[in-house]
Design a protein that fits this description.
This protein has 353 residues and is an alpha+beta fold. It has helices at 2-36, 46-90, 105-140, 142-178, 183-210, 221-233, 252-273, 304-307, 312-321, 346-349; strands at residues 239-244, 277-285, 288-295, 325-330, 336-342. 66% of the residues lie in helices and 10% in strands. The protein is elongated and about 120 Å long.
Length: 353
């Protein structure tokens, strides 16, 4: 917004300077025309000439500056609401017009912007309606989804936890062989067993988190999230806090997507973050719903290589399906913050599940 104000200011100053220059050019042309026809009477003294020149510069410059300011200010007053509307649209907020439309180019630009806003609103409505329809279809295919989830969990148990347990078993066997021969090496092996057990435990907790129902099963989003977080807080050595607006009512498709996003984020935190604190917020704002998930863990480099392993692609796809936006802020040893904004139209917000 500050950059936009600076651009408008530059436009006003540029218009004023151009008007001043143009005024002097026109005045010079008039003087040249009158002088070429001997219509200008010479000054009686140089003091009178200096005085006339000084007054002329002030008058001509003042007229040019006033006209330039008036003309540019008249234009910027009509452009300001459009630019503010574009900034709100960029943030996912639907703001109604109120532009001073006319028959000129700016008026047509305002009309076009109004049509873009209407089409954008229709697209978001369509996305959210499609999301709701998908949720209803998902209910009908619930058994198939449960079977698929069980198969996925079985694969992850084999690929992650089973391998960790096998490594622990092998290391424990090695400890029995080296305990009497090399006590220091045995201590290192025991420490390694502790680390592998901790990793396996984190993997197991993350998998158990996914064993919860895929859908909210009739609960509101805030109720389902609070129940999930309370259960998790009782099982993991992590300080978990939350802040939920209980009066939030969304259609089923949006709530299911947000619930799965939180599940994925919590699973990532258990597996990778090594965090001591985790915070979840679900808040209603004038421009929609804001979901924020934050931990104080180890963070990671946000590059293409990490996207799949941390489930970020899946999160972004879910957010896109409900017409929202997601910001992921992280860095090594700086924790991770996920902020999701979903625009909710007035008609959609009033819908009860």
């Amino acid at each position: 917004m500050d950059g936009y104000k600076r651009r408008l200011t530059n436009m006003i100053w540029r218009s004023m300077s151009e008007s001043i220059i143009f005024s002097f050019v026109v005045f010079g042309a008039i003087i040249y025309f009158l002088n070429s026809r001997n219509l200008i009477v010479p000054f009686t003294s140089w003091q009178e000439g200096v005085k006339f020149t000084f007054i002329t510069i002030l008058v001509i410059g003042g007229i040019g500056a006033v006209y330039g300011f008036w003309n540019s200010n008249r234009i910027t007053r009509r452009l300001e609401p459009m630019m503010e509307t574009m900034i709100l649209l960029e943030k996912g907020t639907f703001a109604r017009g109120g532009f001073q439309n006319g028959e000129d180019e700016i008026g047509r630009l305002g009309d076009q912007l109004g049509r873009i806003m209407k089409r954008w609103e229709e697209q978001v409505t369509s996305l959210q309606r499609l999301s709701n329809d998908n949720a209803e279809l998902a209910e009908k295919a619930k058994l198939s989804a449960v079977i698929e989830e069980r198969q996925r969990l079985a694969r992850e148990l084999h690929d992650a936890v089973s391998q960790q347990l096998f490594a622990i078993s092998m290391t424990a066997t090695a400890v029995g062989r080296t305990l009497d021969k090399d006590f220091e090496k045995a201590k290192r092996q025991i420490h390694l067993i502790e680390e592998m057990a901790s990793v396996a435990q984190s993997e197991m907790r993350a998998l158990l988190l996914h064993l919860r129902p895929i859908h909210l099963e009739g609960k509101r989003l805030s109720e389902g999230l609070v129940e999930l977080l309370k259960e998790l807080a009782a099982k993991v050595p992590m300080a978990i806090t939350w802040d939920m607006d209980e009066d939030i009512r969304l259609n089923k498709g949006i709530e299911d997507h947000l619930f799965r996003i939180v599940q994925e984020a919590l699973s990532n935190a258990l597996r990778h973050s090594k965090a001591n604190k985790l915070e979840v917020k679900l808040l209603h704002r004038p421009d929609g719903v804001r979901l924020a998930i934050r931990d104080d863990g180890v963070g990671f480099e946000l590059d293409a290589k990490k996207l799949t392993s941390y489930g970020i692609v899946s999160m972004k796809e879910r957010v896109n399906e409900i017409g929202g936006s997601v910001d992921i802020i992280t860095a090594p040893d700086r924790g991770t913050r996920i902020e999701i904004r979903v625009p909710i139209l007035a008609a959609e917000y009033a819908v009860e599940n």
